[in-house]
Amino acid sequence: MQNTKTAHSNNWSEENVTRIVVASGKGGTGKTLVAANMAWAVSEQQTITLVDCDVEEPNVHLFFPSEGTQVPVCQTIPQIDAEKCTNCGACGEFCQYGALLITPEKVIVNPSLCHACGGCRLVCPEDAITEVPREIGTVTTSKPSDSLTLITGRLKEGEVAAPPVISATKDAASTNGDVIIDGPPGTSCPVIETMEDTDVCIMVTEPTPFGLHDLKLAVGVAKQFKIPSLVVINRSDGSDTDILSFCNEEEIPIVLKIPFSREWAKIQGTGHLIAAQDPTWRDAFLNLFTQAKERAEVKLC
Amino acid sequence: MKIGISTKGNTADALIEERFGRSPFFLIIDSETSEVKAVTNPHSNDTGGVGPKAAQLLLNEGVNVVLTGQVGGNAFNALKASGLEVYACNSGTTATQAVAEYKNGALKQLV
Amino acid sequence: MLKIAILSGKGGTGKTMLSAALADILPVKRIIADADVDAANLSILLEAKDTTSKPYFGLPCAVIDPDLCTGCGICAEACRFNAIIPNGDVYTVRPIKCEGCNVCVYVCPAEAASLVMKENGTLYLSQTPSGVLSHAELFAGSGTSGLLVTEVKKQAEANSEDSEVLIIDGPPGIGCPLIATVSGVDLVIIVAEPSLSSLHDIERLVTVCRQFNPVMTGVINKYDLSPETTEQIEKWYRQEDISIIGKIPFDSEVLTSVRNCLPVTRQQSPASDAIRAIAGKVKDYLDEHE
């Protein structure tokens, strides 16, 4: 079943479920560590869906190797019927992105510049343009355990349009229960697409000037969506002064501090979960989930 | 044959503009009649797609050969797809000098 | 001027740390660019000052005049980006989703919609002890980061004077901003860390980079955190014909320097020594390609 994204919107209308997104701003702070460990801990108690929306560099599946079913994600590009085309140039004039080049012989489409807005088809006076699907990525669904469903979005290498793949990945997530989303780094389009229609954001940061700088940006994005946040400090140094001040000012609770440990870095680096190795951490991640669910009830204005 | 040149000004002694997509002007020179036409580039300050849009502008003018400084990835793809030949000029040369260098085979072909 | 991009695929492996260090010690005239416009951190390490700025306008944004809008909803139907929503009796555009395609303007029967320029970020030019730094910040929640990366690179080139090399601190990922970064670059330095995630991500990164045909080299940062995984990555680099130009040990001095907002090369340390060796290899490359 092909999943052609012509609209960036999600099917998430189910009430009474909590959709938690794990974000950070800065890359490499430990989003996947938190999302994967939390999902594993929760799956010991209830069904949970874990969604990897870092479609440019998805890593969650490395912690849950399992067979999955894959469906393509397609975006449309215009196809010009040469018989009907009169070379009037209206489509090229309209296109804001320079994706259509009108030569004396024909119209040439540059797929990587096309935003699939459908405008060229609308303006063509000869009805010579149809939209045809083009694969830009995949969504894989697998079940590492009876209670854990993993949905992995993957952007095809060389493609630029992460948001439609992210949207398709979220669509594939079951709406029957709670969802944990591993988000992409940054603060632009991919993060926007991931955060939309979620209920609470776990911000994973690190106590460095980089971590704090980027945390502020990420919190800004969450606020634009009126999504409440909570913070996890990874590689905590014990005092984390700057992060604490910022979170105090913004009234964002810090729910978990994970100290740096070479041993854990190695465990994580070889695709294993600290929660699965140590019951104290399993409980800590369960607690994080509970706190996130409570925080989701907060309405931001 | 028509030669399109990215220039900083709208006369034949204007200096070459290195940036293809953001060039403020294009001079269209007919190599047979030596007629010179100056075209203002309406897209030079657009945020995106300036390369392909500049290529389209030259296509619309019936240009066969393009003399410019450097072209970005999107411009390169558009120019290649359109069948235009593109050559790199040295900065600091005028449009007239660039045409002479092209005719002498002294310019490096980019596309 | 030769262009070097420092990339990683996965975030957090040490691109910015290495970019700042190389900028600090490479013995040639250099100009520096921070292409991670979503989360621009390089200026924090380079003692940037005397910063000038100019606004960056990304894609224009649609806006609907509520006085002209009849509430017919045709625009919302036509919008592919879910950017138009009902707002009382009229419709309104959500700038955070709008991609400036102009379809709503075209279809509106009341001519109530128009496209306006929208400021999406700021371009900065700073002075640092290592040379001029071109950087930018995208306003959080904006799009067009790829376009802004291109502006950052163009600004660097426009201010390069007689610089021999442009050092670009790259963004994570393999999408728009990464593609804009690696386009036209001569030398790529990949920074991996010894984890399966990093290995998985550099495989995808290299597939994308190859389209642009740069010279590819690799580094492993914090290599001693996991010797087995380091060996896996080294093996992969060799398989891919990516020359390994250095291995940096895990070093608490790196964190101390970051906290002090300085390049790690300002202090003697094992990491610092390893980076000096890397800089030596980069200098050799520059000499061969003058």
Write the layout of secondary structure elements.
The complex is a heterotrimer of chains A (301), B (111) and C (290).
Chain A: E1 3-4, E2 19-23, H1 31-43, E3 48-52, E4 68-80, H2 90-94, E5 100-102, E6 107-109, H3 119-123, E7 129-145, E8 148-155, H4 162-172, E9 179-182, H5 189-195, E10 200-205, H6 209-224, E11 229-236, H7 241-250, E12 254-259, H8 262-269, H9 274-277, H10 279-295
Parallel strand pairs in A: 1-4, 2-9, 2-10, 3-8, 3-9, 10-11, 11-12
Antiparallel strand pairs in A: 4-7, 5-6, 7-8
Chain B: E1 2-7, E2 25-30, E3 36-40, H1 50-60, E4 65-68, H2 73-82, E5 85-88, H3 95-103, E6 108-109
Parallel strand pairs in B: 1-4, 4-5
Antiparallel strand pairs in B: 1-2, 2-3, 5-6
Helix pairs in contact in B: 1-2
Chain C: E1 2-7, H1 15-25, E2 30-34, H2 42-45, E3 49-57, E4 61-64, H3 74-78, E5 84-87, E6 90-93, H4 103-107, E7 113-116, E8 119-128, E9 131-138, H5 145-158, E10 165-169, H6 176-182, E11 187-192, H7 196-210, E12 215-221, H8 227-239, E13 243-248, H9 252-259, H10 270-288
Parallel strand pairs in C: 1-10, 1-11, 2-9, 2-10, 11-12, 12-13
Antiparallel strand pairs in C: 3-8, 4-7, 5-6, 8-9
Helix pairs in contact in C: 1-10, 5-6
CATH topology heading of the largest domain in chain A:
Rossmann fold
Q: Give the spatial strand order of the biggest sheet of chain A.
A: 1-4-7-8-3-9-2-10-11-12
Largest interface: A-C, 57 and 66 residues
Total strands of chain A: the figure is 12
What is the CATH architecture term of the largest domain in chain C? 3-Layer(aba) Sandwich
Structural class of chain A: alpha/beta
Kindly provide the name of the CATH class of the largest domain in chain C: Alpha Beta
